[in-house]
Amino acid sequence: MTGQQGQGVVTGIGDDCAVLQVPSGQQLVVSIDTLVEGTHFLPGTAPRHVACRLLGAAVSDLAAAAATPAWLTLALTLPRSDPDWLEPFAAALAERATELGIRLVGGDTTRGETLTLSAQVHGFVPSGEALLRRGAQAGDRILVSGTLGDSRAGLETLLRPPAPHADVHYLQQRFYRPEPRLALARQLRPHVRAGLDISDGLLADLGHLLEASGLGADLWQDRVPRSAVLQRFYPRDALVWALSGGEDFELCLSVAAEEVPACLKVAERLGVLLTDIGCVTAAPGLRVLDAAGQVRTGLASGYDHFKDSI
Amino acid sequence: MTGQQGQGVVTGIGDDCAVLQVPSGQQLVVSIDTLVEGTHFLPGTAPRHVACRLLGAAVSDLAAAAATPAWLTLALTLPRSDPDWLEPFAAALAERATELGIRLVGGDTTRGETLTLSAQVHGFVPSGEALLRRGAQAGDRILVSGTLGDSRAGLETLLRPPAPHADVHYLQQRFYRPEPRLALARQLRPHVRAGLDISDGLLADLGHLLEASGLGADLWQDRVPRSAVLQRFYPRDALVWALSGGEDFELCLSVAAEEVPACLKVAERLGVLLTDIGCVTAAPGLRVLDAAGQVRTGLASGYDHFKDSI
């Protein structure tokens, strides 16, 4: 997945501002994301994990808009200037930025008691083509990419470490190294009405999408995609984490029923799982249905997970 | 001073990304700036002061590039969700943003132990017209806007409060409420070779400008503009603070000698002080000359002031 790395950078790091050229016919898409040690990641997390988590989460917002990554600015607040932390962080940031097709063009480094990182990402979309939360229509199908709940399980393995096992590594990678669905979003864009990425949990984020259009949805819980690893390792929690765990950074899309086959074909070609989990309804409210088609109650829409946003 | 507030905002706050339209023929100019409580401002500082300080410093980087402000994103980390802090902060931020012609288009609010604010500012310049640090030539004159050292004196009145006096208010306003020299920079742009804003102190920032072109300068210390208030209130420290105090957010410009009269005319029309304080030399190194033309030694180029960047 390569973006527009390096394209349009007239003046990069080292002046008061970066000077940047947005290609003609394109709109600029921007998002800012903050990670705070002790809030979004555990104290003592390896700097390479912090870099991958920061960039993955930030660039996922560009994927959610079906944008192509271009430029990154970074505000870094550190308790002290520590080369043993800074060097591996910078190396991992540079490597992951290259993989994601985004280029560091500016930053500000300051001293403060708590390690705090804010990444602003900039990308392009052809004018008028950004994928937004609004635009869903009653009758649309709801598609999600990948599997959900793995990231929450990865956090669990850090909070309460189980015996070493290959699955633990998989789950921790899903927590530390979000993989923005850039190519999928861009190629699905012509077939999709509305979308976002799942950062607060499926129920909460699907709720945001529906709210933007004043609609509701029926969602079949058994269809919500869960990895084999998650179900084997945390069989009792898998469903709740898939519904409400958050930090998955997968896409949730509202698609006209007749466009679903085209979407599935795109996903298959890209080798990404894409699953139809329900439909948009004119009646407001998000209903989670069990295998018997009964509405489940008592599901928290915003699980109170490690990410404690205010 | 109105900027491009509201112009080009296709989708603002509330989606995964803001979608923005850069006007044709213009380049995008961006800068990110962080303030940390206890590092850049004193604990307990009134939220309106924090808002004005944050925006003024950030937008000053746009002025330094001779850009017109357009959009703002804000990453806010707070120890707790406190309406008594947030409401006056948001009100002051909105008011100051309107004054500076910049519009809030996105943000991220998180919880963390230390109050930390990162503002990314976005502006426009006509393509190829950004004012940069490089470009100075030997023989150029060095011009600075406004008076220097007031902000450092304002900090002093907070660290060691003197008896109440109208002058104290003036100096504190200079510390809390930087006034980006937006109109001056844009109107001087055709006459100027290189420039930046003074955030680290005149000597340090002029050093950055000279370094960008591999040049030196002779600077007459008695010409460095100091306010009557500063000289009356802190006669012993006034000169050192004007040279090295930092946080002034005035412009420092390198101008061909024959363009100086045009620059002074622009400044006069705008009612802004603009002072010729020295000249650029082919010999590297920054020499501060006293009234007798003798080179002063032992001047710290980067005063170790309250702003403790790393």
From TrEMBL, chains A, B:
Pathway: Cofactor biosynthesis; thiamine diphosphate biosynthesis; thiamine diphosphate from thiamine phosphate: step 1/1. The keyword ATP-binding applies. Mg(2+) 2 binds at residues 33, 61. It catalyses: thiamine phosphate + ATP = thiamine diphosphate + ADP. The keyword Transferase applies. It holds the Pfam family AIRS. Residues 137-288 form the PurM-like C-terminal domain. Substrate binds at residues 40, 247, 303. ATP binds at residues 107-108, 133, 199. GO terms for molecular function: ATP binding; magnesium ion binding; thiamine-phosphate kinase activity. Mg(2+) 1 binds at residues 33, 108. Mg(2+) 4 binds at residues 16, 31, 61. InterPro entries: PurM-like_C_dom, PurM-like_C_sf, PurM-like_N, PurM-like_N_sf, ThiL-like. Residues 14-125 form the PurM-like N-terminal domain. Mg(2+) 3 binds at residues 16, 61, 197. Mg(2+) 5 binds at residue 200. Catalyzes the ATP-dependent phosphorylation of thiamine-monophosphate (TMP) to form thiamine-pyrophosphate (TPP), the active form of vitamin B1. Reaction mechanism of ThiL seems to utilize a direct, inline transfer of the gamma-phosphate of ATP to TMP rather than a phosphorylated enzyme intermediate. Belongs to the thiamine-monophosphate kinase family. This is Thiamine-monophosphate kinase. The lineage of its organism: Bacteria, Pseudomonadati, Pseudomonadota, Gammaproteobacteria, Oceanospirillales. The gene is thiL.
